[in-house]
Amino acid sequence: MSGKPQIKLAAVKVGDLLKHSTTINEINRMASSVFSFTVESFPIEGITSQRAKLIFDWLMTLFKQPLPDGDKTALAKVFLTNITPEAERQEISQVLVDASITGADQTPTAATPTSEASAEAELLNRIFQPTLLRRLPLDATLNDALFDGPRKGKKS
CB–CB of 60/68 below 8 Å? Predict the structure, then answer.
């Protein structure tokens, strides 16, 4: 990454790119599945789409949270991946790189295609980290399944 992350710029651009590709219900459903906080409203002029504004608010709220930057970036990627159609993911990834939120090396390129299986494995390794999951309000059964289940004993 180069320079200070430009969260507001990225949130505006991502919202603009996805405002016709997703629904308010889908945005809120994915956000409530990924994030352990409620959305705040951030005043901004110029965003007229409710969907773009909602994406903006969720991303701004995320980056306001007292989490390590790496955790925020990982959560943003999960959220955005789940609300972005496959055909638009590369463009969203480029916005995050351009805004200094992720590094260029974290974005798949045409020169380095990933198989679906390896992409899934990479996502699981990045997202299902105990440090992130332990922050979620999970019931005891689910907590046991996540932390004492089949991954137990596997070397990372």
Answer: no
